[in-house]
Design goal:
mainly alpha; transferase activity; Glutathione-S-Trfase_C-like; Glutathione S-transferase; Glutathione_S-Trfase_N; Glutathione_S-Trfase
Length: 198
């Protein structure tokens, strides 16, 4: 996880082979009955949902400066963009990918995709990061998500979005995790097929 790397956090990671359905096995369902990742245990505290994990970790390591503190004028905007991701952007993208209508505007979590995307790109255009000059956990969340969504054509890779993705993914933490993830994926595939990792 890129955020863990950015924070320099000492976290014991358990890797699940999602293709093999390990996230649906009793051992993991005992941690998170939803079978979703990420799930984080800090002592007896269970934190799930990607945005929840990001908020928790960034606040847990305040010395790294990836979450504006309570009282910081940027705290509200930071929380806005963290919540906007999970409550509006992700549902809009899922509906778009599945070619579903958002439903009645008064009942929709986000209204319409075009407005959601314009709200985001207007903010990114002010850059370089969501909170201006300050890089935060929100950028780790959004940069990774936009990289993935543009790769699959769910979100158009406009110049503003492409430049933002590049700023976030060119950071050393992102590069280190990407390299480790590639090694891990090769090892999992080798384990599944009985061959040696490439």
């Amino acid at each position: 996880m890129v955020l863990v790397e950015e924070l320099g956090a000492d976290v014991d990671t358990v890797v699940l082979d999602m293709k093999a359905g390990e996230h649906r096995q009793p051992a993991f369902l005992a941690v998170n009955p939803m079978g979703k990742v990420p799930a984080l245990l800090d002592g007896d505290a269970l934190v799930t949902e990607q945005v929840g994990v990001f908020l928790f970790l960034a606040d847990r390591f305040p010395e790294r400066g990836l979450a504006p503190a309570i009282g910081d004028p940027l705290r509200g905007p930071y929380l806005r963009w963290m919540a906007f991701y999970g409550s509006s952007f992700e549902p809009a993208c899922i509906d778009r990918a599945m070619k579903r209508e958002p439903g009645n505007r008064g009942m929709s979590a986000y209204g319409d995709y075009e407005t959601v995307l314009r709200t985001l790109t207007d903010q990114l255009a002010r850059g370089p990061y969501l909170l201006g000059e300050r890089f935060t956990a929100a950028d780790v969340l959004w940069g990774g998500a936009l990289g993935w969504l543009t790769m699959f054509g769910i979100v158009e890779k406009t110049p503003v979005i492409a430049a933002y993705i590049e700023r976030v993914t060119s950071r050393p933490a992102h590069r280190a995790v990407t390299a480790r993830d590639a090694e891990l994926a090769a090892a999992l595939e080798a384990r599944r097929t009985g061959g040696a990792p490439a």
